[in-house]
Amino acid sequence: MEIKKSPKANLETKKTLFREIGLIAALGLVLFLFEWTTHDKETATLVTGPSVAIEDEQAPITQETPPPPPEQIKEPVMTEELQIVENDVKVETDFISTDDSDQKIEIKPYVEAKPVEEEVEVEEEIPFAIIEEKPTFQGKDANEFTKWVYSQIEYPEIAKENGISGRVTVQFTIDKDGSVKDVKVLRGVDSSLDNEAIRVIKKSPKWSPGKQRGKPAKVKYTFPIIFQLH
Predict the structure, then answer these.
(1) Which residues have CB under 8 Å from 197's CB, separation 6+?
(2) Are 202 and 174 within 8 A, CB to CB?
(3) Quick one: which of 82, 102, 139, 183 has the most CB atoms within 10 Å?
(4) For the CA atoms of 99, 103, 107, 113, what is the dihedral angle to 10 degrees?
């Protein structure tokens, strides 16, 4: 015979309610135990042993005495009071000379000195074509120098054998004393002909120097020498 239960007597429907009541009770018990343990520990700490007051040891504070501040320089106070002094002091205008001599100083009127004209020497080399007074060779013009050069030329044998000929352009300076200086070849043909041209020009006798503004001057002279085989 099957036993029938009423729905009100079935505890399965109240299972969830009982579980929640159990959790609440367990949580309340845990909280009570925590509170009780903490209270006991505080009581034991307060009751156990004599109370000892611990004095804090403080290190002595040392402080260096600051140096005294520098003395302030007092600025002079300008007073507004004006003192009026009577001008009774007499100035002596007569000066006493310590010189016992009776010499008199004679003042002469200023005369402006005239500038002295210095003679300016011409140092630059002036080309032969533009100098005011051209130099002369043995009392004659430049044609005389050309004749003298060709009379002194010796045709180099090496140039003869190789059939070398041509024009050698030489430049030199006729100095203030008429001597020939700074001989050089401007345009050459062959070393044998160039050397012969330089040799002859350096042998030149002195010229009568050229003049610029009436003063002896250096004259630059360019002279061509033609070497020609016959």
Answers:
(1) 153, 168, 170, 185, 225
(2) no
(3) 183
(4) -100
> pLDDT at position 219, please?
95
Res 54: pLDDT = 46
DSSP symbols for 12-47: GGGHHHHHHHHHHHHHHHHHHHHHHHHHHHHHHHHH
pLDDT tens for residues 24-46? 888 888 888 877 655 554 444 44
Q: What is the CATH number of the domain that holds 137?
A: 3.30.2420
Tell me 7's DSSP state.
Answer: G
What is the domain range of residue 190? Answer: 126-227
Would 97 be classed as within a structural domain? Answer: no
Which residues, other chains included, contact 183 with Cβ-Cβ below 8 Å and sequence gap of 6+? 170, 171, 172, 198, 201, 202
Stretches where the chain sits below pLDDT 70 are 1-13, 36-123
Domain count, the chain: 1
Strand (E) or helix (H) holding 194: helix 191-202
SS (H, E, C) 125-193: CEECCCCCECCEECCECHHHHHHHHHHHCCCCHHHHHCCCCEEEEEEEEECCCCCEEEEEEEECCCHHH
In Å, the largest CA–CA distance within the chain is 184
pLDDT for the residue 116: 52
pLDDT at 197: 96
Q: Count CB atoms within 10 A of the CB of residue 162.
A: 11
pLDDT per residue as tens digits for the range 153-172: 999 999 999 999 999 999 99
Which DSSP symbol is given to 9? G
